[in-house]
Prior knowledge:
The chain is an alpha/beta fold. It has 10 helices and 19 strands.
Amino acid sequence: xxxxxxxxxxxxxxxxxxxxxxxxxxxxxxxxxxxxxxxxxxxxxxxxxxxxxxxxxxxxxxxxxxxxxxxxxxxxxxxxxxxxxxxxxxxxxxxxxxxxxxxxxxxxxxxxxxxxxxxxxxxxxxxxxxxxxxxxxxxxxxxxxxxxxxxxxxxxxxxxxxxxxxxxxxxxxxxxxxxxxxxxxxxxxxxxxxxxxxxxxxxxxxxxxxxxxxxxxxxxxxxxxxxxxxxxxxxxxxxxxxxxxxxxxxxxxxxxxxxxxxxxxxxxxxxxxxxxxxxxxxxxxxxxxxxxxxxxxxxxxxxxxxxxxxxxxxxxxxxxxxxxxxxxxxxxxxxxxxxxxxxxxxxxxxxxxxxxxxxxxxxxxxxxxxxxxxxxxxxxxxxxxxxxxxxxxxxxxxxxxxxxxxxxxxxxxxxxxxxxxxxxxxxxxxxxxxxxxxx
Length: 439
């Protein structure tokens, strides 16, 4: 029998609700002139907390049908926090200042007046602003740092309440090191982009462990920069684009996600929980239509957003292991084999601050075998009714379609529990969320 030990009194870090974010933009059919009420309802159900929106060069360069005003109105209707990414690739500092004044200005200024004329009397109050996007494609790190310092100083002089996100790469690159060292006094978050995916089942489901490594490295680079430069304020990581993406290219981003990809997304979310001390924002790309989540990957995101508690806690897992060999020629050449033997079960746990509730999220990556498991509560006891949510299907390749919408589905159950352990069997190729009360 496999074993999961949960130490509810040993916190890892606070779980920031912003890790359940997403991305929307004028890319492919992702945004097309407005929003549908059924999509709005699905976004609310999904539990998205923030959406990153990349801005065009300046307020005068946006499409007439759906621009920042419509985006902010949509965010308010969906109960979502807006995150805006400034254009440092083709835009100027004057245009960036115009954006902040347009969005947040409350005085008698030109761009605040333009916002009011557009029908938005009150400032938007946007807090998080990105300093460019994928700037490693357009500048050297030294060039970007010099320009971003100038932008940061001017933007915070205009609005001292904003929080700035630097443009990183994967968290593991020389670019990340140089940008973190150069911008640590000026930023509150360091942004990274990471996509994973492989046609090989095990390469696919194990790939998020590269993200775990990258987040650990980025966190260490931040700690070093803060220490050496005596930076007092906290700096965290924003994984502001992530998802499974490997099948499509050339401008086409509409992926078809089988159950295996849902297990990958669930593992990504477990990684964010385990790295909660480092990562405080994450944005699954993209929200609708282009690499969108309303398929199998919708289910783990919705369950984790709804059930995760505020504090990540430590776990130990002994569930049988699998050795892995990295495959040459993959679209994303990230290596994970050197991380060692991988547990069949991938696990994360959260509790409320009072340690009266526990959520356990478990991915059984074994494609063929169920894993009978004893969950041991080393410093608490389970009580009352445990709620079980299981995402599963006939096999890892199961795909929900309009003709067969429940090929990948969620099964919900309840059972009485009590004592210092809970025995449960995790189905093959499944993701399970357990919610229980603690004494």
